[in-house]
């Protein structure tokens, strides 16, 4: 059991962040063992064709058989919305001795990539090539799902309080003030006094359960499995109940039905096969009728069903 003792200032300082580097690093789990990640099967099939383009020697050294990755690849984000280039710069600034230490911590012995002053540069070059080939084409879609998760957690926090929100992150997470407990199989137990530095929560599309820094002295950071991962690679167009389509029209009914998780207009356009400009028009109409609510998350607006919209959808389904 890993325990984080949260003081009053830490409870106030609990915050969410989205990190492209975190997703890039954790996606190595799918590259290593695609069979454990059936939700990502459509993507892992495409990934198989990309393998000749990737530096698999370096990438493979960044993850161990248990799926653990070195701490220097999961720095605590400075802002809720980090840029990948800024995160790469942090890796490049990592002292080679830290790279070697962190890789040794997950492998037991240092792999060849850990040797030499240029280790950070080799690692960033391999990760950058992997990002461009495998994740960059899908990042807007991925970010939309991650932002939808954060909006959902914020709603739970506002309606039910911090304890309910933390308890709902995972079946392996529990909170009894002032202690946040995380069960991670095989991780040595430890108790960390957060001591006023706050707690950062990172949703991930590639986490099956939870993850924390390997180093007990690492920053207070908890990675958890994001909601909505199952929708990430959907390609079929949703079809709503005929009764609902009869009232709203097929496109607006499909949009209302698709918003079980908050999503942006761009993501909804991809799911429904309707242009983004048309989707925006329909969303404005549904929101004006009180069937949707909108949440701004950084530069993006995410839409979700209101209580009235949920009630209407359920009534039509019956």
Descriptive notes:
Helices cover 46% and strands 13% of the residues. It is an alpha/beta fold. α11 (242-248) packs across α12, α12 (250-258) crosses α14 and α13 crosses α14 (276-288). The chain is globular and about 65 Å long.
Features:
318 residues; alpha/beta; Arc Repressor Mutant, subunit A; 2 domains; 4-stranded mixed beta sheet; 15 helices; DNA-binding; Metal_resp_trans_reg; transcription
Work out the oligomeric state of the chains in this entry: single chain
What string, H for helix and E for strand, traces the elements in order? EHEHHHHHHHHHEEEEEEHHHHEEH
Q: Roughly how many Å is the radius of gyration? A: 21 Å
Number of domains: 2
Give the amount of beta strand, in percent. Answer: 5-15%
The rounded distance between the terminal residues' Cα atoms is 44 Å
Structural class: alpha/beta
- Main β-sheet, in a few words? 4 strands, mixed
Strand order of the largest sheet: 3-4-1-5
- What low-confidence regions span 5 or more consecutive residues with pLDDT below 50? none
Look at the structure and give the mean pLDDT: 88
Number of helices: 15
Shape: globular
**Record field, number of beta strands:** 10
Summarize the structure.
By secondary structure, the chain is α/β, with parallel strands linked by helices.
């Amino acid at each position: 059991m890993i325990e984080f003792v949260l003081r009053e200032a830490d409870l106030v300082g609990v915050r969410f962040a989205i990190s492209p580097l975190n997703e890039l690093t954790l996606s190595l789990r799918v590259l290593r063992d695609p069979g454990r990640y059936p939700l990502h099967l459509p993507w892992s099939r495409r990934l198989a064709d990309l393998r000749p383009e990737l530096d698999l020697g370096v990438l493979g050294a960044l993850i161990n058989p248990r799926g653990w990755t070195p701490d220097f690849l999961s720095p605590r984000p400075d802002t809720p919305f980090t840029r990948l280039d800024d995160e790469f710069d942090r890796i490049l600034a990592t002292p080679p001795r830290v790279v070697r230490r962190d890789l040794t911590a997950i492998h037991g012995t240092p792999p060849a990539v850990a040797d030499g002053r240029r280790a950070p540069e080799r690692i960033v070059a391999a990760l950058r090539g992997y990002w461009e080939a495998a994740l960059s084409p899908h990042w807007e879609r991925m970010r939309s799902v991650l932002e939808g998760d954060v909006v959902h957690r914020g709603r739970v926090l506002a309606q039910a309080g911090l304890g309910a929100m933390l308890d709902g992150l995972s079946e392996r997470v529990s909170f009894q003030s002032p202690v946040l407990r995380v069960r991670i199989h095989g991780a040595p137990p430890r108790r960390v006094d957060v001591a006023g530095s706050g707690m950062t929560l990172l949703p991930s599309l590639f986490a099956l359960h939870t993850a924390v820094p390997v180093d007990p002295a690492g920053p207070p950071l908890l990675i958890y499995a994001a909601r909505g991962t199952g929708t990430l690679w959907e390609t079929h167009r949703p079809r709503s109940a005929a009764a609902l389509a009869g009232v709203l029209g097929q496109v607006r009914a499909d949009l209302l039905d698709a918003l079980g998780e908050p999503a942006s207009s761009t993501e909804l356009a991809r799911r429904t096969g309707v242009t983004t400009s048309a989707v925006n028009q329909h969303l404005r109409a549904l929101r004006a009728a009180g069937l949707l609510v909108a949440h701004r998350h950084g530069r993006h607006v995410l839409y979700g069903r209101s209580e009235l919209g949920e009630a209407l959808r359920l009534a039509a389904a019956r």
